[in-house]
Amino acid sequence: MSDLTRIKAEARARAFARRQDAWEAGHSAPWTLLSEVLKPHLGRPLAGYLPMRTEIDPLPAMAEAAAHGLVGVPITPKRGLPLTFRQWSPGCAMMDGGFGTQIPASGDVVVPEVLIVPLVAFDRRGGRLGYGGGFYDRTLAALRADHAVMAIGYAWAAQEDGDLPLEETDAPLDLIVTESDVIRP
After folding, report:
1. CA within 20 to 30 Å of 54's CA: 30, 46, 121, 154, which one?
2. What are the residue ranges spanned by the domains of the chain?
3. Who has greater pLDDT, 138 or 3?
């Protein structure tokens, strides 16, 4: 294991513990700031995520956006490939998507212009530490090579880390939204 791999694993472990504590604290209606941030983008193709474990929940804001345009959720590909997104709407039929995820049972491909990104840790410069598979880094690189994409990190404020171990391939976020703040790097 390289030093950077070890350092990232340690940073993830600390961030997961902070995220668990924030989730257990049971913040009420954290999605309201995300909803406000998304308002100027309603009608543009959007992709979010279905929260797993202690991730902050973007679904209420995604449901609002789905009333105005396409909303997708990720389909996890084989390792080394970027994500694709399948159209989602509140109450749509779901199926097992692998890796502990659920995906819409059917739906069109959505190519997002706005992407709500889950994360393990973030910094105020737009840095993001993910789960380690590089899926969102590859996805953002591919999307940004084709068209402008706004990447919005969504996390509990407790996931902030001012000393993230980042690499050149780690795709930056344009905004970070927490339950209490909108951070514009």
Report:
1. 46
2. 3-183
3. 138
Assign residue 16 a region (left: φ > 0; alpha: ψ between -120 and 50; beta: otherwise).
alpha
| 3-class DSSP assignment, residue 146 | helix
Sign for the pseudo-dihedral over CA of 47, 19, 30, 37: negative
Main-chain dihedrals φ then ψ at residue 79, nearest 5 degrees: -55, 140
Structure tokens at 177: 């939204």
Q: Homologous superfamily of 3-183 in CATH? A: NagB/RpiA/CoA transferase-like (3.40.50.10420)
pTM: 0.92
CA torsion 27-31-34-36 (nearest 10°) is -110
Label residue 27 by pLDDT band (50, 70, 90): low
> For 144-185, what is each residue's pLDDT tens digit?
999 999 999 999 999 999 989 888 889 999 999 998 899 999
